[in-house]
Specification:
Radius of gyration: 13 Å
Strand order of the largest sheet: 1-3-2
Number of helices: 5
Strand content: 5-15%
Oligomer: single chain
Structural class: alpha+beta
Length: 92
């Protein structure tokens, strides 16, 4: 897929840029727990905590990330799913 085709695909599917950035952060540094994602997003000055949660919900609903159970039931780590990898590569 060419960069232009990828751009058109993303426009059609209305993926917010901030959600893509969060997905990229999880791909680069993951698996990460929610607080680690929040800290990285804060360093990148993406958005407020509430907005970051909204974008995390977006990438979860689109199945671009998977939730891994941490050491106990209270923590969840996020990692990029196969679909998320394909999205980042521009093949979906």
């Amino acid at each position: 897929m060419t960069p232009l085709e990828l751009h058109r695909y993303r426009l059609v599917h209305e993926m917010p840029m901030e959600a893509e950035v969060l997905l990229s952060l999880v791909a680069e540094y993951g698996p990460l727990n929610i607080m680690q994602v929040m800290d990285l997003a804060k360093q990148e000055q993406i958005a407020s905590h509430a907005t970051i949660h909204k974008y995390l919900d977006t990438i979860r609903q689109r199945e671009l990330v998977i939730e891994l159970n941490g050491g106990d039931h209270r923590t969840k780590n996020l990692d990029v799913s196969k679909k998320g990898i394909r999205y980042l590569q521009g093949t979906i």
